[in-house]
Design brief:
TIM Barrel; about 45% helix; globular; about 230 residues; 8 strands
Length: about 230
C-alpha cells in the first residue's frame, strides 16, 4: 500500500498536539516520526502513539556520542518497541559497530538508520567543516563505513538516493527533503518530488510540512499516496 511508505514527522511541541496530529493522519501514513523537539518535551511516553494507531515508530534522535552512551541509548529505544532509530554515520566505526550489535541483540526488530549528510546542508557548508570531496561521494563513503559495521539502513537526500541504491541494493533507504511539486522547500537544500524519490530507489519518504500545513492535511496525504502509487507502477 503506497501510504505505508510515507513517514509523518510529529514535529510539534507537546504530546497533546502530537496526539491530535496522529489521530487525524495516522490512517493516511505508514510511520510516525518522533524527533528531538517532541521527545525532549514529552519523553518516552509519546512513543506509545505508534501502538495506539498500529503504526511503526521512527525515533529520530540522530545519536552521535561515545560508543557506550550510544549503545545504551539504542537498548533503551529497543525496549520501547521503536522500529527505526537514527545514528550519525560520522560517529565512527566503533560507535556504529556497538549500536548495530546492540540493535541485533535486542531482538532484531529495531532497524538502525545511519544519517549520511543532512538535507539542510549543501556542498558549501560541507566544505566549511573540512569535507572537500563531492557531497554525494561523501554520503556514499559514510554509508560504506556504516554498512561495514552492520548498519542496514540509511537516511539520505533525494539527490543521493540513486547512488545509494546502486551501492546498497538491500538497504532500507529513508529520504527526507521530499516536496510535492509547487510546495515550499523550507530549510531543505536538496529536494525532490515524491515520484522522483521513489523512482530513484527510496523505500520511505519523510514528508512533514506539505501534509501538516496543508489546508486539508488528509487530502494532501492521499494525493501523495496516489503519486507514490503512480511512481511504483
Amino acid at each position: 500500500m503506497p501510504h505505508r511508505r510515507i513517514v509523518l514527522p510529529l514535529d510539534v511541541a507537546t504530546e497533546a498536539e502530537a496526539r491530535r496530529l496522529a489521530d487525524g493522519l495516522a490512517a493516511h501514513v505508514g510511520v510516525l516520526k518522533i524527533g528531538l523537539e517532541l521527545f525532549t518535551a514529552a519523553g518516552p511516553s509519546v512513543l506509545a502513539l505508534g501502538a495506539a494507531h498500529q503504526r511503526d515508530v521512527f525515533l529520530d534522535l540522530k545519536l552521535h556520542d561515545i560508543p557506550e552512551t550510544v549503545d545504551r541509548a539504542v537498548a533503551a529505544a529497543a525496549s520501547h518497541g521503536v522500529r527505526y532509530l537514527t545514528v550519525h554515520a560520522s560517529g565512527g566505526a566503533t560507535m556504529l559497530r556497538r549500536a548495530a550489535a546492540r540493535a541485533e541483540s535486542s531482538g532484531g526488530k529495531l532497524t538502525l538508520l545511519a544519517v549520511t549528510v543532512l538535507t539542510s546542508i549543501d556542498a558549501a557548508e560541507l566544505a566549511e567543516i573540512g569535507v572537500t570531496r563531492p557531497l554525494a561521494e561523501h554520503a556514499v563513503a559514510l554509508a560504506r563505513l556504516a554498512w561495514a559495521q552492520g548498519i542496514r539502513g540509511f537516511v539520505c537526500s533525494p539527490l543521493e538516493v540513486a547512488a545509494m541504491r546502486k551501492e546498497f541494493p538491500e538497504a532500507t533507504l529513508v529520504v527526507p527533503g521530499v516536496r510535492p511539486r509547487g510546495t515550499d522547500a523550507g530549510d531543505q537544500r536538496r529536494v525532490a518530488t515524491p515520484a522522483e524519490a521513489i523512482r530513484a530507489g527510496a523505500d520511505l519518504l519523510v514528508i512533514g510540512r506539505p501534509i501538516r500545513d496543508a489546508a486539508d492535511p488528509a487530502a494532501a496525504a492521499r494525493a501523495i499516496s496516489e503519486e507514490i502509487a503512480g511512481a511504483c507502477a
